[in-house]
Specification:
By secondary structure, the chain is mainly α. The protein contains 35 helices and seven strands. Helix 8 packs parallel to helix 10, helix 22 packs parallel to helix 24 and helix 26 runs parallel beside helix 32.
């Protein structure tokens, strides 16, 4: 980029600042970035970029820009204050230590430096609110009344104290807490806000008001209050837990774990911490860590609450510990027979195990005790074939329009209604609910398809120069898994079920461990969108670690299938690490394949491209691109199955599939629907039915509704125009 003149920098900065003030952060960051690229010594651009990255929780970038701004303007208090906020909200211990080290030598006014240092020191875990001159004995009396469950008395005493000490933010905070407990909601909110107005540095008041607003379903306001509380007291455990819980719900569990580990390091050991940590690790698919956190949560509650025990069961089910999970669901139900998470969780486990009748009874119970829980309806409908006049359809339609339903529940309900309407052949109304559900999902989980194009381009570039057939890796294992991969909803679960019906094979499901490890091996640790060729001396370790992982989970299995969707991205690398492995790539008519994807909601933080028709078609192009890449280089390293051929000629295609996996033929592979193994995918019901042609050319029913997807597929040459 050409250099900017001083006038151009000023004009660009003014435009970026104006966009920043209007909330157009994308335009603003482009402007600041252009300035920094042209002249990296403009401190104002770094400062404002740091503010944006802080506001959007991209803290690594924020730390970088604040660090540069502080070097360029070391005596600017606003820079250090903003940097401190970012550190409070998103730093691990090492980053925090680096900030404090820099702060010690900053040429700031002594009172400014001490205030910032105290935030991470003396005031780390609690602030010192304005008491207005209240006596310590009176403060203890107020707190004792709250602790003993006497909010009315606490309210009266706090009101009396405020007449004597109107500047007591502490008394106002206690007053708000007492009023909230009494159900005096408007008065409680006013008291909390008055406490903050009286003492703007009172972290606990921000935290309490945030918790109050969460209970009123005002999440966006609450999150800003939790953030403020943490910036004022970076070690305040309740605020860290509250903010982390909100971050997990917003799809940022890794950041949540950073904050929760900080609370742990500060000595926190309360049930809310362990529940939040368990939920965050579950969202990250760190199920063993989730199990450990939730088990500790059960310990701290002397046997557990129904919710805590049910969450523990959920993590254990994810780890394949089905017996322990079922026992804990039953234990949770014994603590509270109407606990929604226990009722729904046990229903889901029974469903994955193929006990659809028992699952249905629990799902229907869940409809009554948690009537606006859309996820329960969506999960139920996966294994329920609706019939004309089915009362569950009218029930869902009535609840869908309930103004009290949260967007997440309405999204789940929309997917459920669409499936039920298709079951009863009411095709004309399916897409009203399907489009609304996908629109809600995209709003909750934004996605840019450009990052997928970059990922595929970088992956291909990393692998482009390798001599695949000529490379021999020393020290590899003889472990021989069978990888089943392809687009989601292409028939991969069906193929795995067929192979896993062989007596020598265990279906391990969608593990993902090997694909993730392969990705890490070629990814720049400082920039996850940059790839490099794998280090040859690390490839064998990739295979051995995967073998150890599988042996621990399936100690009695000779061979396993791994149905991880993304394995095709790293096929050659995985084959080098596991020379005796086999690969099956499943293909399906893209019109049916992508329609099936669009009709379903996937687990959180996965397949985020799925909720926009054009993005679906573009993603399919990248899938074909990667398969073509491997076909050009190692066509003999994988076997392709065409779904339509399999359903048209089941026995012929199944025999070829089994042979391609290096297995002797067994008739059980044709009776795959009788296999009782656990299935945890969206195809949980379909794979327990015989092969049918019902899903072939289904897209033709919705040709008009699918115009955006079909137009893109035609444009990219996948279907005839």
């Amino acid at each position: 980029m050409r250099a900017m003149t001083g006038a151009e920098i000023q004009a660009t900065y003014a435009r970026a600042l104006q966009a920043h003030k209007k909330g157009d952060l994308e335009t603003a960051i482009r402007g600041y970035g252009a300035i920094i690229e042209a002249n990296p010594k403009v401190p104002e651009a770094h400062f404002q970029a740091g503010r944006i990255f802080t506001a959007t929780n991209r803290f690594d970038r924020a730390f970088q820009h604040f660090g540069v701004a502080a070097q360029l303007r070391p005596g600017e208090a606003a820079v250090w204050s903003a940097w401190a906020e970012a550190v409070a909200l998103g730093a691990d211990p090492e980053t925090e230590a680096g900030f404090l080290k820099a702060l010690r030598t900053a040429p700031l006014a002594i009172e400014t430096r001490i205030a910032l240092q105290d935030r991470f020191g003396a005031h780390r875990a609690r602030t010192r609110p304005a008491t207005g001159g209240m006596k310590p004995a009176d403060i203890r009396r107020l707190l004792a009344l709250l602790d003993s469950g006497k909010p009315a008395e606490a309210e009266r005493l706090a009101t009396a104290m405020l007449r004597q000490h109107p500047g007591s933010a502490l008394a106002l905070n206690i007053l708000g807490t007492a009023q909230a407990q009494e159900g005096k909601l408007a008065s409680a909110e006013a008291s909390f806000r008055k406490a903050i107005e009286t003492d703007p540095g009172y972290a606990e008041a921000y935290d309490n008001l945030g918790r109050f607003l969460i209970d009123r379903k005002r999440e966006e306001e609450a999150v800003q209050l939790f953030r403020k509380a943490v910036t004022l007291a970076p070690g305040l455990a309740s605020a860290l837990v509250n903010l982390a819980t909100s971050l997990t719900q917003a799809g940022q569990p890794a950041l949540a774990v950073t904050l929760l580990e900080r609370a742990r390091a500060g000595g926190a050991d309360a049930p809310p911490l362990w529940m939040a940590l368990g939920n965050a690790h579950t969202r990250l698919k760190n199920y063993a860590k989730a199990e450990a956190a939730l088990a500790r949560g059960v310990e701290t509650t002397q046997g557990g609450t129904a919710q805590m025990v049910a969450l523990l069961a959920q993590a254990q089910a994810r780890l394949g510990k089905d017996g322990e999970a079922m026992a804990n669901y039953d234990r949770a139900l014994s603590l509270d027979e109407n606990a929604p998470i226990a009722v729904g969780g046990k229903a889901l486990l029974l469903q994955t195990l193929g006990d659809f009748d028992a699952a249905e009874a629990l799902f229907r119970k869940g409809f009554e005790i948690d009537p606006l829980n859309g996820e329960n309806f969506r999960a139920f409908i996966m294994s329920h074939k609706a019939k004309p006049g089915d009362p569950v359809i009218d029930m869902m339609l009535a609840r869908y329009d309930d103004p009290a339903m949260l967007p997440t529940d309405r999204m789940n309900m929309g997917f459920a209604i669409a499936k039920a309407l298709e079951d009863v052949k009411d095709y004309g109304h399916v897409f009203r609910y399907l489009d609304e559900a996908n629109t809600l999902m995209r709003k909750m989980s934004p996605y840019g398809i450009d990052q997928r194009f970059q990922q595929v381009a970088e992956t291909k570039a990393a692998f482009a120069g390798m001599d695949w057939h000529g490379t021999r890796i020393e020290g590899t294992t003889d472990f021989a898994p069978i990888f089943v991969t392809g687009m989601p909803r292409s028939g991969t679960t069906l193929i795995e079920q067929i192979i896993a019906s062989h007596s020598s094979v265990t279906g391990a499901g969608e593990i993902g461990e090997c694909a993730r490890a392969a990705q890490v091996l070629i990814t720049d640790p400082k920039n996850p969108m940059k790839m490099h060729p794998p280090a040859m001396d690390e490839i064998a370790g990739l295979g051995r670690r995967f073998e150890t992982f599988i042996r621990e989970r399936f100690p009695e299995s000779d061979r396993i299938t791994d149905k991880s969707i993304q394995t095709y991205m790293y096929l050659g690398l995985v084959k080098l690490a596991l020379p005796k492995s086999r690969f099956v790539i499943v293909r399906r008519d893209p019109r049916d394949n992508l329609l099936s994807i669009y009709k379903n909601k996937f687990p959180d933080d996965t397949h985020l491209y799925a909720y926009d028709q054009r993005d679906l078609a573009k993603f399919y192009t990248t899938f074909v691109d990667m398969i073509d890449f491997w076909r050009e280089r190692v066509p003999d390293w994988f076997y392709e199955v065409q779904y339509e051929d399999l359903v048209a000629n089941p026995e012929e295609e199944t025999r070829k599939l089994i042979a391609a996996c290096g297995l002797e033929w067994e008739d059980a592979c044709l009776s795959f629907h009788e296999n009782k193994r656990k299935v945890e995918t969206l195809s949980v019901y379909q794979v327990r039915q015989p092969i049918t042609k019902a899903s072939v050319a289904l897209w033709q029913r919705y040709e008009k509704d699918l115009e955006p997807m079909l137009d893109q597929l035609k444009k990219d040459g996948h279907v005839a125009g």
